[in-house]
């Protein structure tokens, strides 16, 4: 068999595979629209395949079909005995190589939890969801980390995930991760741990230890999510968290951008009732926030 014939066979096999995937996804979409019975566990076990196809398939129609199936699947009423299977499959997707799949599964999980809110109230289910969120908050891909923060904020806002001292301490430890500039010789500068030094480290590009930056950003995103979960209130913990975040306004990107956006959103959502809200802050905390909000770096 010559090379040209082999290439033709491979192309035909790919076309046949695409047609098969389209048939399955379109059948699933049709089934969701007409069936009144509970969704079988086997359908949820297709999640990793469908997520990968939506992210990686070259056929635009197939990607749209996968998107439709995922939307239907996230809104379907789930039998209580299937919750463990679904959460286990979501965890499997969170470990896929495709960052698009890892980001999309967060949106799927949020809709699934909200759509079956009274069926996922056990401590075990809540712990599984929280662990997945904290895991993806430290993802190597920026878009996944940001989506995890948005999802976490929504889960805290609806009181599904409990915001307690342990969680706040976890984010405080992450955001306090020191980022040291690594010189070309391989030695690190022990003095390069301040916020201003981090800016210098950012200009060094690949000289920044990426994993430490990710951990630091995860902590900032986590604290930001805690603040954004209360858009019109000021719980006791928020004043100090805002002060802690303000320390990072000059950190390398994307950390600095996250802090600036969080402070901006807080000021916007709390502006109308600021006369009452500011009573939750000490004089020192108010001075610190005012200095950050009016500094040139805040608007940079």
UniProtKB/TrEMBL annotation:
Domain Proteasome activator complex subunit 4 C-terminal: 214-300
Top-rank lineage group of the source organism: Eukaryota
Pfam family, one: PSME4_C
Statement: the UniProt record of this protein carries the keyword Transport: no
InterPro entries xrefs: ARM-like, ARM-type_fold, PSME4, PSME4_C
Keywords: Proteasome
GO CC aspect terms: cytosol; nucleus; proteasome complex
Gene Ontology biological process terms in this record: proteasomal ubiquitin-independent protein catabolic process
Record-linked Gene3D superfamilies: Leucine-rich Repeat Variant
MF-aspect GO terms: peptidase activator activity; proteasome binding
Name of protein: Proteasome activator complex subunit 4
Organism this protein belongs to: Plakobranchus ocellatus
């Amino acid at each position: 068999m010559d090379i040209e014939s082999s290439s033709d066979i491979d192309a035909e096999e790919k076309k046949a595979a695409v047609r098969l995937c389209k048939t399955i996804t379109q059948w699933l979409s049709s089934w969701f629209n007409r069936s009144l019975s509970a969704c079988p566990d086997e359908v949820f076990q297709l999640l990793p395949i469908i997520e990968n196809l939506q992210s990686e398939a070259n056929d635009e129609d197939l990607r749209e079909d996968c998107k439709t199936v995922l939307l239907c699947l996230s809104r379907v009423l789930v039998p209580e005995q299937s919750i463990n299977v679904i959460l286990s499959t979501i965890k499997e997707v969170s470990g896929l190589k495709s960052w698009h799949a890892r980001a999309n599964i967060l949106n799927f999980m949020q809709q699934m939890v909200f759509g079956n809110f009274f069926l996922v109230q056990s401590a075990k289910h809540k712990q599984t969801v929280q662990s997945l969120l904290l895991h993806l908050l430290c993802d190597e891909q920026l878009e996944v980390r940001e989506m995890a923060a948005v999802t976490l904020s929504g889960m805290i806002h609806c009181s599904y995930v409990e915001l307690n001292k342990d969680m706040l301490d976890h984010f405080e430890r992450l955001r306090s991760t020191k980022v040291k500039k690594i010189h070309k010789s391989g030695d690190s500068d022990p003095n390069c741990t301040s916020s201003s030094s981090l800016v210098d480290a950012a200009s060094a590009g690949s000289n920044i230890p990426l994993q430490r930056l990710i951990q630091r950003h995860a902590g900032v995103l986590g604290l930001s999510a805690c603040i954004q979960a209360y858009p019109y209130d000021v719980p006791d913990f928020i004043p100090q968290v805002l002060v802690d975040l303000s320390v990072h306004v000059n950190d390398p990107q994307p950390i600095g951008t996250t802090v600036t956006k969080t402070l901006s959103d807080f000021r916007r959502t709390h502006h109308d009732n600021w006369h009452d809200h500011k009573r939750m802050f000490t004089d020192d905390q108010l001075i610190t926030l005012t200095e950050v909000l009016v500094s040139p770096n805040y608007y940079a």
